Amino acid sequence: MPGPRNPFVGLYYAGRYAEAARAAQAGVDLSPENPQAIRLLVHGCARAYARMGDRAAAEAAIGRALTLSERQQELPVGLTACIDFVPYSLARTLANAITARLSSGDAEAVLADADEIEVDVASAPHRPGDAPPCAHGVHGSSVEKRPSRRVFAGQGARPRSARGGTRTPTSEDTGT
Predict the structure, then answer these.
(1) Sign of the CA dihedral 11, 42, 79, 130?
(2) How far apart are the C-alpha atoms of 65 and 11, rounded to whole Å?
(3) What is the pTM of this model?
(4) Position 146 confidence tier, pLDDT thresholds 50, 70, 90
(5) Is 164 helix (H, G, I), strand (E, B) or coil?
(6) At what angle do helices 55-71 and 90-104 cross, to 10 degrees?
(7) Which of 47, 67, 70, 176 is deepest in the core (most CB within 10 A)?
């Protein structure tokens, strides 16, 4: 049976996180301004770094993905598919950031990102023919594009105050 087409995905799910991060970074290095680098940074690098316990590297990769998103002239709206030829939407980028931040134990950032995803998905236009939610709760994205919006000020990871989330994690949220 053939292996995955995306080498970092196979490495990640095999628990070979350092190799997964290197493979994803190699893809970014080939074309660092390409919209697909958003996917490689947040889905490949950030999640692998978080699994290795390197929170700073995970946050740096998330910040780079968000910065690259900000530089795009257009991004899809709603929650885009994980694997597609279109760039990640802001909601998808944040969804992948959540998986990295869950591994890092950053409940506050997870809740803030979830709030921002909820707003972004709710504001996306839905038309007949859009893909319905799947078993994982992923909604199809509209093919309509909107200009990229500034998601944070400055370089790197967004400061907590700029994330847009206002909830404070409770013991029910964090399991403590």
Answers:
(1) negative
(2) 21
(3) 0.70
(4) very low
(5) coil
(6) 170
(7) 47
Q: Which amino acid is at 78?
A: G
Please give the structure tokens belonging to residue 128.
């007949």
Cα separation, 33 vs 80, in Å, equals 19
Strands, E assignment, 1-136: 74-76
Write down the residue that tokens 């292996």 correspond to. Answer: 3
Strand partners, 147: 74
DSSP state of 167: P
CA 46, CA 20: separation in Å to the nearest integer?
10
**146 CB-near residues (< 8 Å, 6+ apart):** 74, 75, 77
Among 40, 71, 165, 43, which residue's Cα sits nearest to residue 109? Answer: 165
Q: Which residues pair with 75 in a beta bridge?
A: 146
In the block, residue with structure tokens 């080498």: 7
Measure the CA–CA gap between 107 and 170, rounded to whole angstroms: 9
Q: Select the more confidently predicted residue: 96 or 159.
A: 96
Distance, in Å, from the CA atom of 90 to the CA atom of 118, rounded to the nearest integer, reads 11
Closest CA to 162 of 172, 170, 154: 154
Q: Compute the distance between CA of residue 136 and CA of residue 175 in angstroms, rounded to an integer.
A: 22
Q: Which of 47, 51, 83 is nearest to 65 (CA)?
A: 47
Question: At 150, which amino acid appears?
Answer: R
